[in-house]
Design a protein that fits this description.
By secondary structure, this protein is mainly alpha-helical. Helix content is about 50%, strand content about 0%.
């Protein structure tokens, strides 16, 4: 939680949302697959689960501390990170769909069972801060794959 909160506080480009599931069942897999970052709150092994209010409190506290910085003043925006326009959620989701089509076309991905690979690719890309230009590059690669597989 602390590392994530620091990352969010250091970037004015991010629009974070904390999504918490209910105490009994957590979040449905569909929702988890749409998340860019998953956070695990370390807990005492003897009492390994937190209730919803405790989890929300820990996350809110870490975000607030990170936003204020060490001396209690608001944290300065980081010069590390984005250098171009941050890709929007719809751009990134379109990229995933395009990549999935290309991976199916080259038979790297089983169209009937894409459940394992695509969430892993989403996790891989969510560790980066994709810029619009980078999304366009990946979509261009997917477009060329689709174009070349249709010619054969």
């Amino acid at each position: 939680p602390r590392a994530f909160a620091g990352h969010v506080a250091a970037s004015s480009e991010l629009m974070p949302a904390l999504i918490l599931g209910n105490e009994r069942f957590g979040l449905p897999n569909q929702i988890v697959e749409q998340c860019n970052v998953l956070i695990n709150i370390p807990a005492n092994p003897a009492y390994s689960s937190l209730n919803l209010a405790q989890a929300a409190q820990v996350l809110a506290y870490e975000c607030r501390v990170a936003a204020l910085g060490e001396d209690g003043a608001p944290a300065a925006p980081s010069a590390i990170g984005f250098h171009g326009a941050a890709a929007g959620v719809s751009e990134i989701e379109g990229m995933y769909a395009h990549l999935q089509q290309a991976l199916v076309a080259i038979e790297f991905l089983d169209a009937d069972n894409p459940k394992k690979l695509m969430p892993r690719l989403k996790r891989l890309f969510s560790r980066t801060q994709l810029e619009t230009e980078e999304v366009n590059i990946l979509r261009g690669i997917a477009r060329q794959i689709l174009k070349n597989t249709k010619q054969k």
